[in-house]
Here is the input.
Amino acid sequence: MNLTQLSQSINTLLKKDLAFAIYGLPDENREFTLVCQTKKDIKEIDILDIDEFSGFVVAPFKSAQTGMGFLIQPDFVAQGDDLPNLINEFAQNFPDVEHEPLSTENHIISHHAYINNAEYLINLLQKEQLHKVVYTRVMTESLPENFLTGEFFRLLAETYADTFVCLYHLPGRGTWIVASPESLLEVDQKEASTMALAGTRLYHPETTSQPWAEKDANEQSYVSQFICNLLSEIGITNYHVGKPTTKKAGHLEHRLTCFTIPIDELADKTGKIIMGLHPTPAVCGFPKGDAYHLIMRAELHDRRFYTGFLGPWKLNGNSKLFVNLRCAELGENTINLYVGGGLTAESNAEKEWDETLLKSQTLLSVMEKM
Here is the structure.
């Protein structure tokens, strides 16, 4: 597929102010798929009832509390090499829409305040009030002159073939771009799978096989234990746990353990699994409930869709939900980058700040190419 043509088609579609998502699954030879709805109102769904719906699901971080997400209904679904032409033909049926740009203003924490807050949280962890909490922040950058959203998506897709890349637009709620390495739940005809992904370090081919630092290994083990506990609580005992491996995600790599569940074990438990997994300890903390409430007190910004989840559901015979990581919220002249890291008793506040800078490069390094 000509990704330049696809980027131009995306820019055309954005002018129509329709709810849509265009995405590519992690694969060097991936196809891109567009899911678009023609109605203005975006359907809100109860995640526990997710098996009753088909389309593209986008759930904010706070869906952990509300239990609700948004569904882009599949009024128009297209994929394949001819996708740019299919988008252009479809877009001709709708007028360009003039609308006031949405405010993307959010709380920006200073380096000094971040360090103070992180040290306070680490102190709580050292007192064993909980094992892990994920502390996040927002970075706001000015967009380059003549910034084109479709071109940004093209460059992101070319740079990160090993991640789930997605651009979605929800009228009245914003435009977001994502390059996520973390699957929340995937379901096909035979099995369901999820992953425990945590720990972050720079990727280098000569050091990727080295053992992980104790802090990162512990952080990831909390996520694995959390998933085991969740499946047991739901009543799923027949599942397979893989050995910890290292997953490359662009210039970073993470520690990973995969879980697979036979499809007959799900039996109407899909919504419960999703709500049990979200937010994972990799984006919230452990124990999850305590960490979530601490985040609500410690973070002054609104995470919005960051660390929520998204993905195609019951489309083309598969369902694939991903954690909304390495993501940005696009404004008229600015971009909000959402980044964070897992704090444990072994954490160092300055190193955690540096980790957020590393993670911001996932998108910033692509923007610099424009």
Notes: Residues 179 and 342 are 19 Å apart (CA to CA). Residues 214-234 form the longest helix (21 residues). The mean pLDDT is 93. The chain has nine helices and 19 strands.
